[in-house]
Each structure stands twice: as structure tokens, then as C-alpha cells.
């Protein structure tokens, strides 16, 4: 398939680029350097270059705290730009795959959120992503809205030092400090960008019908549970201390129980296995 990938140098985008190439697809990856997608007219040229059958949006204004004071910028990329991409994809009859987040939900439901739950965000980032979701499923050419959560991967998030995801941050802190404190009252599904990229490759080539998909590694954990697993697997010596969110204040409110339930796609492997693979 001919794939046009936006956000190809981000944390997820880098794994998507690799996975598509390894699976034999023709992929053209672009990022902000080539096309700033918040300016609609910029987008058309790149569509002519590759004439895509599938368009993937792995861009995102992903600074959750920053969005609280940069609402306009968050909405420009996470909502308005999604509209431009969805329209452009529909104009060439390409499938459109958009990546969204568990943060479109409030995190108050301990049973989690399946594909039919209506979004209700508790912070600006979540609101902007929920607004973007509305543009994905409107065209007949086919929209795939992929929600995922708590991503980590071997490529870095843009703007962050190389590889400084939650896992690497924990290892770094454990090597620098006698004690590391991690919140034990926010729960979610830790997901590997490598596993997610493989699942998205299956989604676009496996005959799945357009719609909403929750693609996450299986198993619910708190950030403290994740840290504990890292400590055990890496034999870290620092003391690991569970704390509550109130002891680690952040600018944006975080959902407490942001658990995505996947009822439509073959389950991804448990998060512990994916993490072991990453650490090996
Ligand atoms: N990270 C998570 O835990 C997580 C969880 C759930 C869902 N998601 C979603 O997954 C997607 C990918 O996340 P990620 O963590 O891989 O993000 P990321 O590493 O921050 O990558 C996002 C990419 O988008 C690019 N971009 C930003 N503004 C742009 C613009 N105006 N035009 C074109 N490209 C632009 C960025 O380039 P610059 O560096 O130049 O800005 C960057 O390469 C996002 O939609 C995010 O909401 C992430």
C-alpha cells in the first residue's frame, strides 16, 4: 500500500515508519519540517507527490500541561489540522487513520472505557483531542480512530532528550538518587509504540472496517506498578516509594482511571511482556 505518514519523526511515528517499511509498504513520512499541517493549504502538495491509499496522522500537540495555557495551539494541531487531513484524504479516496488518547475520558469509571463511550475530558489536551476525533469518521472513504495510552518506545518524543520516556526516566532517577517517588493512584494501560505500530499495520491491511479502535497492551497498572516492574527487571537499588497524586501536583488535571477497553481487535500482549522485550 502507498502510505502517507504525518508526524514520522515523533515517538510513535518513528516506529510506524519502520514497521510499514519492514512490512513492505511504500511509505512517505513527513514531519513539521516538510509540512506544517496547521496551515491547510500546505497539505495538498504532499498528497500529489505520493497519491496515498492510506493517510496516517501521528502528529500531536502532546504537552499535556502546556496545553492548559496554550489552548489555541493545542486545538490548531489536535483538532483543526485533523479536519484538513481528513478532508484531503477523502478527496483522494484514501483511508484516514488518526491517533487519539485515553485522555478524552474523565477517568472516573473504574470499569474503563470501551469504543462506544462518549468522550468527557478533564483537561485542555483531552478536550482538543476529543474535538479532533469528530473529524475522523465523517467520510465514506473510511476513517479509523485509534485511541491508545501511556506510550513509550525506543524513539524519543520530540523536544525531549533522546529516549527519555517514563521507563528511561525511572532508570535514570534510580541511578542518581537514593529514593524515587512514583504516583500510585493513577491507573492506565502502558503501551509499547512498537506493538501499537504492528497493530496499526494489521488494522489497515487486515480487512478491518472503519471505526473506533482501542489499541493498548493488556493489563491495568498504576505508574508505581510500572516502576516496580522496572525495578525488578533491572535490579535497581534505589528505594521506590509510592505516593498519591496530591503529593506530585501537575498543572493539568490527570484522569485517575484512564483505562481503554478493547472489544474489537485481537488483544495486544500484556504490558509486562512488552516491557520485558523493550528492556532486553
Ligand atoms: N505519548 C503518549 O503517551 C500518547 C498517549 C496516547 C496518545 N498519544 C497520541 O499519539 C500521537 C503521537 O504521540 P507521540 O508521543 O509519538 O508524539 P510526539 O513524539 O510529540 O510526535 C508528534 C510529532 O508531531 C509533529 N508535529 C507537531 N506539530 C506539527 C505541525 N504543526 N505540523 C506537522 N507536524 C507537527 C512533531 O514535530 P515537532 O517536534 O517539530 O513539534 C512530532 O514529530 C499523538 O496524536 C498523541 O496525542 C500519545
UniProtKB/TrEMBL annotation:
It comes from the Bacteria. It is an enzyme of class 1 (oxidoreductase). GO terms for cellular component: cytosol. Keywords: NADP, Oxidoreductase. InterPro entries: dTDP_dehydrorham_reduct, NAD(P)-bd_dom_sf, RmlD-like-bd. Residues 1-279 form the RmlD-like substrate binding domain. It holds the Pfam family RmlD_sub_bind. GO terms for molecular function: dTDP-4-dehydrorhamnose reductase activity. Its EC number is 1.1.1.133. Belongs to the dTDP-4-dehydrorhamnose reductase family. Catalyzes the reduction of dTDP-6-deoxy-L-lyxo-4-hexulose to yield dTDP-L-rhamnose. This is dTDP-4-dehydrorhamnose reductase.
